[in-house]
Design brief:
Length: 157
């Protein structure tokens, strides 16, 4: 039986938690902008943590994450679930960075988006210095470093 190279996400996966942080940021102000969706696609296709995902899988993963976020009764319900699925500090920093990237994608950060980022940074136990560094990287459309479970790209010679 040939193996499928397609990525499938479970609700308990780190990738699912990363999607949910991005969707949470996009939905925070009540209106998901095209630029926010474009940023989610850009970040997913550039991140090694999502290597191998196909466009159809991505659409399905975004829809699933949006459903989980929408069905959450409150931030107090969804944020601990997200934090529990991020196994290390690097994954938690990445989750915040991805959420911040989506929040700033439309060049606006209304109070609702700032509140989500603040709640997320508190739940992920990030320092003010970490938050500032990650937010600056997001504003500059910079790259976030790979997490421990993903090997860094080979160095150019």
């Amino acid at each position: 039986m040939p193996s499928s190279k397609r990525i499938h996400f479970s609700d308990k996966s780190r990738q699912s938690a990363l999607f949910e942080t991005m969707i949470l940021a996009a939905m925070a102000d009540g209106a998901v902008q095209r630029s926010e969706i474009d940023e989610i696609y850009r970040r997913v296709f550039e991140r090694p943590e999502f290597h191998g995902i196909h466009a159809d899988d991505l659409r399905q993963a975004i829809e699933h994450a949006a459903k989980r976020v929408t069905e959450a009764h409150s931030l107090e319900h969804i944020l601990p679930s997200i934090a529990d699925r991020l196994p290390d500090r690097e994954s938690r920093e990445l989750a915040f960075g991805l959420a911040a990237s989506v929040a700033v994608a439309d060049n606006q950060t209304p109070p609702a988006e700032i509140a989500i980022l603040k709640a997320l940074s508190d739940m992920l136990d990030l320092s003010d210095a970490d938050v500032a560094r990650l937010f600056e990287t997001a504003q500059e459309h910079g790259d976030f470093p790979p997490t421990q479970s993903v090997p860094p790209p080979p160095k150019a010679r």
